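All the exercises in this workshop are built on plain-text protein records. Sequence and backbone structure share a record, each on its own labelled line. The question running through the whole workshop is how a given chain folds. The record below serves as our worked example for the rest of this section.
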Amino acid sequence: MSNMNNNDHGRVTGLPGTTTTVTLHPQRLGVRMRNSIIRMLETRIIVGGWSSKSRQIAEAISEKHGLQCGISNWNGIRVLGLSHAAAPLLAETLHADWTAFLLENTSYNKGYYRTQYENSMALVNGVDQNFYMTMHDKNSIRKVIEILAEHTPPELKHKAKQVAHLFRGTEPIEITTFRS
């Protein structure tokens, strides 16, 4: 296998019944990347662009360890595990974000964005456990992340800290990156 080119490797790893496992050495990651991954795992919210390597690593580690994480991107946030205590705070933040958006864009009062807002409010008020909220302001999204982190049950906080602690050590971490 040593004289295979990248295309040959791709064909072999893409065969039915194969898995590709990567060994990650946390001490070889840059400080910013390692701290970013730790922060994402501890708050249980994955942030960053689609091609962000720290985001990809955090997603793979959370999947491996069964840690449910929400996902934040440029236009909203996926909420997992909303508690009854956090719901009113989330509703208040969502309403403030929508109001601020309407002040700048009065023509969006009806239509797609209005429907998105109403759907999100219904899910927050119903304390749904898995939904996506469209939001327009980065500070509002950060506030939602803080609210969710603050109202995470203790057992989930403990599990998140244990998974994040893997990146503070020197032991290699195995991640399955491909299954056919």
In short: Helices lie at 6-13, 31-43, 53-64, 87-104, 112-125, 138-150, 154-165.
